[in-house]
Write a structure and sequence with these properties.
The chain has 210 residues and is an alpha/beta fold. Helices cover 52% and strands 11% of the residues. The chain is built from nine helices and five strands. The longest helix has 20 residues, at 152-171. It is globular and about 50 Å long.
């Protein structure tokens, strides 16, 4: 079955984990659009450009598949860089075509921040995945350091960064982060990855013959 499922939400809410697992369960391709912006930011930094002030259009246009496979795309420096470069209209335009082409032929599960509002406003299903900033800070800390018990000072700094990024993403004039009117809200504060997947699959099965 050809389905386009949009999974949106703020950083570290679990949307990427859900989208990847949902795609695997449904036999659909998966695209993490946030990784595109992270890769643009990283490539800019590698050549001495500043994602916060320099034009990233040519970098976005020349992005290669291997650029998405780097192991240094999920660090605080790139969190900030991706958020900054995502405000550039030419960058978003360059990446929009790639995102739409990815899913149009065979369907896909696509996650990001504007999938259900801009990239695929007519998606078959839209999910908006969210969690509190405090919970997301713990998840991001564990992702970065691979330990269960965080250092409180570092955790506080991560939470502040997440809140600042939320504000920037929600207030940017181009494709701001917001829940589509017809999206299903999925709150993950008290759910592990398996429970979130089970909930999402129940939504899919209730709507489609899968």
């Amino acid at each position: 079955m050809r389905l386009i499922i949009a999974v949106d939400g703020p950083a570290a809410a679990g949307k990427g984990t859900l989208a990847k697992a949902l795609a695997s369960s449904l036999g659909l391709p998966h695209l993490d659009t946030g990784l595109l912006y992270r890769a643009v930011a990283r490539q800019m930094i590698l050549v001495g450009l500043d994602p916060a002030s320099d034009d990233g259009e040519s970098t976005a246009q020349s992005l290669q598949p291997q650029d998405l496979l780097r192991s240094d795309l999920r660090v605080p420096e790139i969190d900030r860089g991706a958020s900054a470069v995502a405000t550039q209209v030419p960058v978003r335009a360059a990446l929009l075509k790639r995102q739409r082409e990815f899913a149009t032929e065979s369907g896909a599960v696509i996650d990001g921040r504007d999938i259900g509002t801009v990239v695929f406003p007519d998606a078959d299903l839209k999910l908006f995945v969210t969690a509190s900033a405090a919970v997301r800070a713990v998840r991001r800390y564990q992702q970065l350091h691979g330990v269960e018990t965080p250092v409180q000072a570092e955790l506080d700094a991560l939470e502040a960064e997440i809140e600042a990024r939320d504000r920037k993403d929600a207030e940017r004039p181009v494709s701001p982060l917001r829940k589509a009117a017809d999206a299903v809200l999925v709150e993950t504060d008290h759910l592990d990855a398996q429970a979130v997947l089970a909930h999402a699959l129940s939504i899919v099965k209730a709507r489609f013959a899968v």
